[in-house]
């Protein structure tokens, strides 16, 4: 659903989130920036934010996903931050980590 809504921004994702340009931002990012103690990462050009999510936030978001999709379709110029994806990162080195990719509204 969101792929069709945000297809035009695909090139921006690749440029903004390119590891080559974000190395320093990763080292500057830290925990505790969010009210819940979430980790926040701002892309080098400040167009996008990656935020960690608790299990509760992740579950709630998945339940509300259809409503978010309908809102974005009906309100193309909504002031709500556009959530572009929610993912679970799974590696052998850390516990599963839920992250959200969203546009920065600032």
Topology:
Layout: H1 2-6, H2 10-16, H3 19-28, E1 30-31, E2 39-42, E3 48-53, H4 55-74, E4 83-89, E5 97-103
Antiparallel strand pairs: 1-2, 2-3, 3-5, 4-5
Tell me about the biggest sheet? 5 strands, antiparallel
What Rg is obtained from the alpha carbons, in whole angstroms? 14 Å
Regarding CATH, which class? Alpha Beta
The CATH architecture:
2-Layer Sandwich
Counting DSSP E segments of at least 2 residues, the number of strands comes to 5
Q: Please report the number of helical segments.
A: 4
Number of domain modules = 1
Percentage beta strand: 15-25%
CATH topology: Phosphatidylinositol Phosphate Kinase II Beta
General form: globular
CA-CA gap between termini: 25 Å
Uncertain parts: none
Q: If strands are numbered along the chain, what order do they take across the biggest sheet?
A: 1-2-3-5-4
The whole-number mean of residue pLDDT values reads: 78
Question: In a nutshell, what does this entry contain?
Answer:
The protein has 106 residues and is α+β, with helices and mostly antiparallel strands.
3D structure, described in words:
By secondary structure, the protein is of the alpha+beta class. The relative contact order is 0.18. The chain is globular and about 40 Å long. It has a 5-stranded antiparallel beta sheet with strand order 1-2-3-5-4. The protein has one domain: 2-Layer Sandwich (Phosphatidylinositol Phosphate Kinase II Beta). The model has no long low-confidence stretch (mean pLDDT 78). The protein is 40% helix and 25% strand. It starts with a helix and ends with a strand.
């Amino acid at each position: 659903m969101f792929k069709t809504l945000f297809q035009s921004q695909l090139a921006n994702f690749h440029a903004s989130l390119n590891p080559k340009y974000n190395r320093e931002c990763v080292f500057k990012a830290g925990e505790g920036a969010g009210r819940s103690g979430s980790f926040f990462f701002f892309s080098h050009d400040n167009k996008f934010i990656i935020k960690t999510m608790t299990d509760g936030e992740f579950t709630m978001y998945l339940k509300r996903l259809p409503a978010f999709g309908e809102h974005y379709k009906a309100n193309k110029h909504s002031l709500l931050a556009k959530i572009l994806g929610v993912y679970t990162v799974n590696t052998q080195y850390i516990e599963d980590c839920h992250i959200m990719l969203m546009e920065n509204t600032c």
